[in-house]
Amino acid sequence: MISRQFAPVLLLLTVLTACQSSYHLAQQSANRIEVDSVTARADPDLTGFLQPYRQKLDQTMNEVLARSTGPIEKGQPNGPLNDLLTDALLQQATQKYGKPIDVSHLNFGGIRNNLPAGNITIGGVYEVMPFDNKLVVLTLTGDMLMQLLNHFADGNKLVVGGVRATIHDGKVQSATLTNGRTIQPNETYTVAMSDYVAEGGDNSGFLKNPVRRDDINYLIRDALIDYFRQQGKSGQPITPTTDGRITIK
């Protein structure tokens, strides 16, 4: 039996439930609203608050690291930017790792912009490498290294330092390490790359079980910034060139 004190509450719930309407979407429409500096005026208080931070950011991003005698562009299968970035990564990774590294690798799709002729700035490097990918050094068997080279050779997206390769029908026909080592199936080799690829990005899941993995607390972008800064201090401009390390037959 329902207590008299709850009867009014139950009656009210019954009435409210009975009065509820059933709703459904009858139509929909959309309009494009353009927002720019004219239609959306800056808030002066907010602008004033952010100004010191913006000045500091602009100062950092506009720092000139080095100079180039011409535009440095990526390409397939070769490009001056391909060679420059992988050689820079190989050098900086070796310094950080403290031991020789055989090969460096970069994801072709991760190189998002070219570098201009003239000043190379920190902001310019951010445009080339906008992602916070960290440096990883993998120790791979010769078989795994060849699998890596073949995986990215398909589609002419092989961007490497420390190795020269000849590709035929999307497969590596021959590969030679520039440090004098030859690739033997059961020997081991060190490869500097991004954590994105090391963790299976770009369908490279076969790299998840290397002989050894060393995570370096060093952003690849920072490695490139450090490299260009060193080049700038040398006083010599960078001359864009490619050594034809990838050959297509």
TrEMBL record:
<feature type="domain" description="5'-Nucleotidase C-terminal">
    <location>
        <begin position="78"/>
        <end position="203"/>
    </location>
</feature>
<feature type="signal peptide">
    <location>
        <begin position="1"/>
        <end position="26"/>
    </location>
</feature>
<dbReference type="GO" id="GO:0009166">
    <property type="term" value="P:nucleotide catabolic process"/>
</dbReference>
<dbReference type="Pfam" id="PF02872">
    <property type="entry name" value="5_nucleotid_C"/>
</dbReference>
<dbReference type="InterPro" id="IPR008334">
    <property type="entry name" value="5'-Nucleotdase_C"/>
</dbReference>
<protein>
    <recommendedName>
        <fullName>5'-Nucleotidase C-terminal domain-containing protein</fullName>
    </recommendedName>
</protein>
<dbReference type="InterPro" id="IPR036907">
    <property type="entry name" value="5'-Nucleotdase_C_sf"/>
</dbReference>
<keyword id="KW-0732">Signal</keyword>
<dbReference type="GO" id="GO:0016787">
    <property type="term" value="F:hydrolase activity"/>
</dbReference>
<dbReference type="InterPro" id="IPR006179">
    <property type="entry name" value="5_nucleotidase/apyrase"/>
</dbReference>
